[in-house]
């Protein structure tokens, strides 16, 4: 399958349930760095935070001792100033055309919601910045007060017990949300899987790609080959920038005019 053949399959009537897996590469064109790109990725640019190692900034045990580096970074990454990309717009089109089954995302930037993709189709596997709570007593913390703290780079503290407040982003060392676990069986109903902009290195998310049925074509749209893509006879690998590959696909589908 190449892009035109993929387009024919999508419009054949046989393809009704498209499942997506998204990673940070979908949002780099919105101005949000990914983690692992060698020069532009977050991990390559954290020297100013004086961390023992880059991942520490997203580790729950480290955050319990020292939440300041996370909040320094949060000031830059906080949603609000970023706009959805062409790729997000394409996903919304799939939803409009009743082809979108489930959009599993590792992104915490809420750009899927901002693009207008229906909430019930989105599974934010690693949580998001949309809510926050005290890590000690778990009580929710006010949205406006959170925003104020983050924009000033200050660490918010619980008004009830004084514990540190953390957005509902899944840190390394934390469980994934029940919505994610509950949505895993949906993969079996997919008749197309498209994986976009992810290194497929974070588990258990990465393992979803192996959970679709063997006869379900899998498409990878990424700058580089990742995971076990290429190991199945019906795998399609479209290397390039998400927005560019998606635009070509939209063109082949005759949907280019509808992209926002
Ligand atoms: P990653 O940094 O590990 O990998 C990103 C992948 O996308 C790489 O393979 C890279 O080559 C590719 N890529 C980068 N720009 C691209 C583009 N324009 N087009 C196509 N491919 C591109 O990211 P990941 O796999 O999502 O890592 C998982 C973790 O990153 C998650 O835990 C997630 O929560 C977190 N994260 C989220 C955001 C966000 O919300 N936007 C940003 C950074 C990290």
Key traits:
binds nicotinamide-adenine-dinucleotide; two-stranded antiparallel sheet; 16% strand; alpha/beta; 260 residues; 6-stranded parallel sheet
Explain this structure to me?
The protein is of the alpha/beta class. It is 26% helix and 16% strand. The strands form two sheets. The chain has a six-stranded parallel sheet with strand order 3-2-1-6-7-8. It has a two-stranded antiparallel ribbon with strand order 4-5. Helix 1 crosses helix 8. Nicotinamide-adenine-dinucleotide (NAD) binds next to loops.
Question: Which helices and strands occur, and which strands form pairs?
Answer:
Elements: H1 3-10, E1 18-22, H2 60-65, H3 68-77, H4 86-96, E2 100-105, H5 111-114, E3 122-124, E4 127-134, H6 143-152, E5 165-169, H7 178-183, E6 192-196, E7 218-222, E8 235-239, H8 242-253
Parallel strand pairs: 1-2, 1-6, 2-3, 6-7, 7-8
Antiparallel strand pairs: 4-5
Helix pairs in contact: 1-8
Bound molecules: nicotinamide-adenine-dinucleotide (NAD).
Brief sketch in words of this structure:
This protein is an alpha/beta fold. The protein contains eight helices and eight strands.
pLDDT < 50 stretches: none
Mean of pLDDT: 94
- Output the structural class: alpha/beta
Taken from the alpha-carbon principal axes, the silhouette is elongated
Helix content: 25-40%
Largest sheet features: 6 strands, parallel
Number of separate strands: 8
Strand sequence of the main sheet, in spatial order?
A: 3-2-1-6-7-8
Radius of gyration: 19 Å
Strand content: 15-25%
Bound molecules: nicotinamide-adenine-dinucleotide
Question: Helix tally?
Answer: 8
N/C terminus separation? 26 Å
């Amino acid at each position: 399958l190449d892009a035109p053949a993929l387009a024919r399959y999508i419009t054949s009537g046989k393809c009704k349930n498209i499942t997506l897996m998204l990673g940070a590469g979908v949002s780099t064109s919105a101005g949000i760095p990914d983690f692992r790109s060698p020069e532009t990725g977050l991990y390559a640019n954290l020297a100013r935070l004086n961390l023992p190692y880059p991942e520490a900034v997203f580790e729950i045990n480290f955050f319990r001792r020292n939440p300041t580096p996370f909040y320094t970074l949060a000031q830059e990454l906080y949603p609000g100033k970023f706009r959805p990309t062409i790729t997000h717009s394409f996903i919304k089109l799939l939803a409009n055309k009743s082809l979108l089954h489930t959009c599993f995302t590792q992104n915490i930037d809420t750009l899927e919601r901002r693009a207008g993709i229906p909430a019930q189709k989105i599974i934010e596997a690693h949580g998001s910045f949309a809510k926050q709570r005290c890590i000690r007593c778990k009580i929710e913390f006010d949205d406006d007060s959170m925003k104020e703290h983050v924009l000033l780079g200050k660490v918010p503290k619980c008004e009830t017990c004084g514990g540190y407040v953390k957005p509902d982003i899944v840190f390394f060392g934390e469980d994934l949300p029940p919505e994610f676990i509950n949505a895993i069986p949906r993969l079996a109903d997919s008749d197309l899987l498209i994986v976009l902009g992810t290194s497929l290195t974070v588990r258990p998310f990465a393992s979803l790609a192996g959970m679709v049925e063997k006869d379900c074509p899998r498409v990878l749209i990424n700058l580089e080959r990742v995971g076990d893509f290429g190991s199945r006879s019906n795998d399609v690998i479209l290397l390039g920038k998400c927005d560019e590959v998606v635009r070509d696909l939209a063109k082949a589908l005759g949907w280019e005019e509808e992209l926002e």
